């Protein structure tokens, strides 16, 4: 009998009602062939501990019930194991679920886990931090930091925080050292993408694939607000790579040398990190429960 652990973040997302999701899980799984349990996280990092415990006890699936931050924590506890990551999206952006066509409707996502397919995907690593969607340093890291401090969730607060950050942000010089070249630049954004989008449909890396053994480095040069605003639609229709201030390339490893320590983000979660950033892809290191058509 397969064992499944549902790891619920009770403070994730906009409409925080974990009791409703717990009820739906119990209703769908009580007559299934699976042995299941539901645990609520109590503090930051708790989901990592619960996922590692599930992997150590040979659970078939550990399910992240929350947003991309919860997915990141559960995924970190499963990297390199045979226990698959499941997702019931309950965040404000849900970029990971969108990248894998996991239903955004929570009841549909729960029912999908009754008979999922499984897919191996790559994992990104920036210093000691794993990421599964997108990491970065620059404006997007600053927005992630400000958004976390803002407290409110959702696309409207994110837009307000992002606009304020863009007006105030001063790009800083850095050096990037790849397998093929070295360059010094002062980008507005430098994102390292495993999957195509941040969340809420904002696609930063249209060509990124979760299982190609590479990461996409996406760079946006400094641009004035009057030019950025009319091109925002490109983030949401997959045409950001047609914008003149955008360029990208693929890597298996990369070093970023910054002038000083500062903020980075991994899947939208901000961290203060050393000036030197070592980035690499860890191929096919995470199993994910996905809809059958995504296998």
Write the layout of secondary structure elements.
Blueprint: E1 3-8, H1 18-29, E2 35-40, H2 46-56, E3 61-66, H3 68-78, E4 84-89, H4 95-99, H5 106-112, E5 117-126, E6 129-131, E7 134-138, H6 139-150, H7 155-168, E8 174-178, E9 182-185, E10 189-193, E11 197-199, E12 202-203, E13 215-220, H8 225-228, H9 233-237, E14 246-251, E15 253-258, E16 262-266, E17 269-273, E18 276-290
Parallel strand pairs: 1-2, 1-3, 3-4
Antiparallel strand pairs: 5-6, 5-18, 7-10, 7-16, 8-9, 8-15, 10-13, 11-12, 13-14, 15-18, 16-17
Task: Kindly summarize this structure in a few lines.
The protein has helices at 18-29, 46-56, 68-78, 95-99, 106-112, 139-150, 155-168, 225-228, 233-237; strands at residues 3-8, 35-40, 61-66, 84-89, 117-126, 129-131, 134-138, 174-178, 182-185, 189-193, 197-199, 202-203, 215-220, 246-251, 253-258, 262-266, 269-273, 276-290. With 295 residues, the chain is α+β, with helices and mostly antiparallel strands.
Distance between the termini: 22 Å
Number of helical segments with 4 or more residues: 9
Q: What Rg, in angstroms, do the CA atoms define?
A: 19 Å
Largest sheet, in brief, is: 6 strands, antiparallel
How big a fraction of the residues is strand? 35-45%
